[in-house]
């Protein structure tokens, strides 16, 4: 049932279309999509960094929390070529998405703006999923994927306290966790 691994790639685009369709029933300028969706992707980039650095590499003292963090991420470092440990399961990401939609709606006061921002966030998430999968299961040695792979593998196999950004080094540069990685 390998197709289950990739179900996020049809779930989130379908949900994005539904949310945008429902929100466009309001009188809203389409031009707002041109900046709200990229802002959502930008929010995702910070979220990708923050989740990876502060949650997935967190070492809680509570036994049950430690088990949760281990099952969600640490096991991926141990078995990094296992496809089942590379992609995020929708059973985890869908509830988090619902919380984000509620939070974005609370902040913006607009279902349309919240939906557009969440759509951008989902685009960033799906890009992350695609890149992360390719980094671990292909031999991307050149171009953008090669660059992303060098940084991510440095994080995996050399120093797990640096290079938290998988798709971009932006937040590693901002927060001082970037390390220049030379080609092998």
DSSP strand (E) fraction?
under 5%
Sheet having the most strands? none
Distance between the termini: 35 Å
Helical stretch tally: 7
Which overall shape is indicated by the principal axes computed on the Cα atoms?
globular
Order of helices and strands: HHHHHHH
What is the alpha-carbon Rg in Å? 17 Å
Give the helix/strand class: mainly alpha
Could you give the count of β-strands? 0
Low confidence ranges: none
User: Mean pLDDT across all residues, rounded?
Assistant: 85
What is the share of helical residues? Answer: 55-70%
Structure description:
It contains 7 helices and no strands. The chain has a domain at 8-77 and 85-139. 66% of the residues lie in helices and 0% in strands. The termini are far apart.
Please write out the topology.
Blueprint: H1 8-23, H2 33-55, H3 63-78, H4 90-108, H5 111-137, H6 143-157, H7 170-175
Helix pairs in contact: 1-5, 2-5, 4-5, 5-6
């Amino acid at each position: 049932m390998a197709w289950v691994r990739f179900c996020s790639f049809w779930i989130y685009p379908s949900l994005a279309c539904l949310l945008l369709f429902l929100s466009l029933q309001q009188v809203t300028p389409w031009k707002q999509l041109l900046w709200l969706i990229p802002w959502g992707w930008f929010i995702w980039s910070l979220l990708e960094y923050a989740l990876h650095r502060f949650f997935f590499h967190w070492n809680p003292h509570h036994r049950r929390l430690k088990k949760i963090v281990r099952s969600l991420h640490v096991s991926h470092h141990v078995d990094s070529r296992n496809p089942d440990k590379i992609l995020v399961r929708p059973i985890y990401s869908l509830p988090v998405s619902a919380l984000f939609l509620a939070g974005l709606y609370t902040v913006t006061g607009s279902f349309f703006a919240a939906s557009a921002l969440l759509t951008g966030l989902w685009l960033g998430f799906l890009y992350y999923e695609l890149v992360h999968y390719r980094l671990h299961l292909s031999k991307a040695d050149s171009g953008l994927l090669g660059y992303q792979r060098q940084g991510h593998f440095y994080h995996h196999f050399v120093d797990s306290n640096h290079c938290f950004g998988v798709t971009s080094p932006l937040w590693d540069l901002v927060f001082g966790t970037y390390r220049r990685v030379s080609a092998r």
